[in-house]
Amino acid sequence: MLWPVSVNEDMILQVDATSGLMSGVKQVASPNHDPRPPGIETDLIVVHGISLPPGDFGGPWIDRLFSNTLPAQAHPYFAQVCAMRVSAHLAITRDGAVTQYVKFTDRAWHAGQSSYHGREQCNDFSVGIELEGTDTLPYEQAQYAALAQAVAALCAAYPTLSPARLVGHSDIAPGRKTDPGPAFDWPLARRLIGAAASACGKARQR
Ligand SMILES: [Zn+2]
Question: What CATH number is attached to the domain comprising 177?
Fold first, then answer.
């Protein structure tokens, strides 16, 4: 059954291609990035799921993980992951709020060992978007709406990106990663992204 979900027309996200920044969202600078390799086009968007600790939502913990300030003593799970040096370009919390951590022109550290159609190291050529969630609990409508707006804005700014080149972390790291998991509604996401991209004048690239 298709949900009667429409794209949130109040949310207008824009990306400045040169600066690599998205306007209208919270910015939290993550040190966990480096330059993209020269001569490689950014042409893939990777969707992830994250929650800290797993299954808990809210709080500052995603910001803190990507800022290398996650307090190890606050939860046993944090002690396991606080030394990881990871990031994503964007994260979308349960309420649909978007935060940017790394400029799109830089390489975020989200995919790890990965491969897409025979190309290794997907961080080199991808944009990483985290959704606050788990593999098994349905993601929120507000998150799909925000994801659609973000992907449309990215595709408008960078012609090498396309709604068709959107994958899950599990697609590029099978056997190692399972996110965003079976809870992620790909048909709904693709429908909303298609609508948002059309609104951005990108219909021909769907
Ligand atoms: Zn992931």
Answer: 3.40.80.10
Q: Which regions of 26-149 does DSSP assign to beta strands (E)?
A: 26-27, 33-35, 44-50, 90-92, 98-100, 106-108, 115-116, 119-120, 126-132
pLDDT for the residue 12 = 80
For the chain, what is the domain count?
1
Residue 100 gets the label, from left (phi > 0), alpha (psi -120 to 50) or beta, of beta
The answer to the question of residue 177 being in a domain is yes
Place 199 in a pLDDT band, splitting at 50, 70 and 90: confident
Q: Is residue 143 part of a domain?
A: yes
User: In this structure, is residue 187 part of a structural domain?
Assistant: yes
pLDDT digits (tens, 9 = 90+) for 180-189: 999 999 999 9
Domain that holds residue 113: 15-52+86-200
Ligand 1 geometric centre to CA of 171 (Å): 10
- Cα distances from 130 to residues 10, 13, 16, 50, 51, in angstroms, run 22, 16, 20, 6, 9
pTM confidence score: 0.93
Number of C-beta neighbours around residue 12 at 10 A: 10
pLDDT tens-digit readout, 80-125? 999 999 999 999 999 999 999 999 999 999 999 999 999 999 999 9
| CA of residue 118 relative to chain centroid, distance | 22
Is residue 149 one of the residues assigned to a domain?
yes
Q: Give me the residues near ligand 1 (ion), CB cutoff below 5 Å.
A: 48, 169, 179
Q: Is-catalytic flag, 132?
A: no
